[in-house]
Automatic annotation (TrEMBL):
PANTHER family: CATALASE-PEROXIDASE, THYLAKOID LUMENAL 29 KDA PROTEIN, CHLOROPLASTIC-RELATED
One of the GO biological process terms: hydrogen peroxide catabolic process
InterPro entries: Ccp1-like, Haem_peroxidase, Haem_peroxidase_sf, Ligninase, Ligninase_C, Peroxidases_heam-ligand_BS
GO molecular function term, any single one: peroxidase activity
Class of enzymatic activity (EC top level): oxidoreductase
Protein's recorded name: Peroxidase
Source organism: Schizopora paradoxa
This enzyme's EC code(s): 1.11.1.-
Domain Plant heme peroxidase family profile: 47-295
Classification via Pfam families: peroxidase, Peroxidase_ext
Length: 355
């Protein structure tokens, strides 16, 4: 191992490899300006963007896309015609100015920003970052990004064609622990997928297993199935993606999904490993340089086991795994139905979030 560090041109940082210097500076900018060291909306959307760029790849036909190559930013006008990419324009708009401020490719920017973003979320693992993605020369074909209303076998086939098993997909879906929809429900923003959208915890794996009671619209929106944690008067309840529900119950993935409930450590490992793969889809890693050192140390997990949200309980569990795996015994949060915070600081009114 090379233990010498080089002094970076910015006069502030040192790096194991000169090629990593720019990422140390970029991390500072992302943290202080773009994300404000917070696991908020902009961080969530930056993480989502890593997937929507990288999944534009097909082993069956490599002409369809270059994977994690920045094409979604470089050819935004084309790729955003795919309805599966609804909403990713916000992340692209946030990040695009950095392309002119830092000497980096669009693909590197997207994957690096996602890895820095998630470090702000309590309980996220420290992700890897390999530098050196050449800029995309053509857009990815439309139709490569899974949609929540797609049949689960179609989703698995699409993921397999990009190199991911059902287990790896479940690992990636830990991301839906810090996720809210802006586009699926008419006239609604930031509808959360679990009761703790600013904490990278296993609540998503638990709450998707609870019997549905209420959808956000009647009938449910395309890609939505009813969720258990309802809309209290003061704020909005959560929604379930049809795809998360189907993946939680498919025989290909249901036992693994269920096993992640209250297993923070295993969730972190599987998310870490699958993200390492996702970040280099379509890339020749032998030509890349490991700049993981530029990723900030993540905020540690909150020391709280998974719990049934207030007003729910084990009687609502729908378990389809037929292997004899005991389900963890979990407490139920006390009090009236859970009110899900809308801001990272715990405020329940989206209009009051610090920007
Ligand atoms: C079967 C595959 C997947 C489907 C169908 C899916 C679908 C969706 C949908 C419909 C939304 C809401 C977008 C909106 O309305 O604003 C969303 C949000 C999100 N997804 Fe996924 N997703 C999938 C996999 C992934 C993966 C692999 C990642 C990981 C990198 C990811 C990360 C996120 C994040 C972080 C958000 C939240 C964005 C925000 O809060 O603004 N998703 N996903
Ligand atoms: Ca969560
Ligand atoms: Mn959003």
């Amino acid at each position: 191992a090379n233990f010498r560090r080089v002094a970076c041109p910015d006069g502030v940082h040192t790096a194991t490899n000169e090629a990593c210097c720019v990422f140390h500076s970029l991390a500072d900018h992302l943290q202080t300006i773009t994300f404000n060291f917070t696991c908020g909306e902009d961080a969530h959307e930056a993480l989502r963007l890593t997937f929507h760029d990288a999944i534009g790849f097909s082993f069956m036909n490599e002409a369809l896309g270059g994977g994690a190559d920045g094409s979604i930013m470089i050819f935004e006008d084309t790729e955003l015609m795919d309805p599966a990419n609804n909403g990713v324009d916000d992340a692209i708009d946030n990040l695009r100015p950095l392309l002119t401020m830092f000497d980096i490719s669009a693909g590197d920017l997207i994957q690096f920003a996602g890895a820095v973003a998630v470090s702000n979320c309590p309980g996220a693992p420290k992700l890897e970052f390999m530098a050196g993605r050449p800029n995309a020369t053509h857009p990815a074909a439309l139709g490569l990004v899974p949609k929540p209303e797609d049949p689960v076998d179609m989703i698995f086939a699409r993921m397999e064609d990009a190199g991911f098993s059902p287990t790896e997909l479940v690992g990636l879906l830990a991301s839906h622990s810090i996720a809210r929809s802006d586009t699926l429900i008419d006239n609604r923003q930031a509808v959360p997928f679990d009761s703790t959208p600013f904490t990278f915890d296993t609540q998503i794996f638990l709450e998707v297993l609870l019997a549905g009671q209420e959808s956000q619209t009647l009938p449910a929106a395309a890609g939505e199935v009813a969720a258990q944690v309802p809309n209290p008067l003061v704020a909005q309840g959560e929604m379930r993606l049809q795809s998360d529900f189907a993946i939680a119950h498919s025989t290909e993935s249901n036992c693994f999904w269920q096993s992640l409930v209250n297993d923070q450590n295993n969730m972190m490992i599987h998310f870490h490993d699958a993200m390492a793969k996702l970040a280099v889809v379509g890339q020749d890693t032998s030509k890349m340089i490991d700049c993981s050192e530029a990723i900030p140390e993540p905020v540690p997990p909150v020391a709280k086991p998974a719990t049934f949200p207030a007003g729910t309980g084990p009687e609502l569990l729908q378990l389809s795994c037929t292997e004899n795996i005991p389900f963890p015994s979990l407490a139920t949060d006390p009090g009236q139905a859970t009110t899900i915070p809308e801001c990272p600081d715990g405020d329940i009114n989206l209009n009051d979030c610090p920007s």
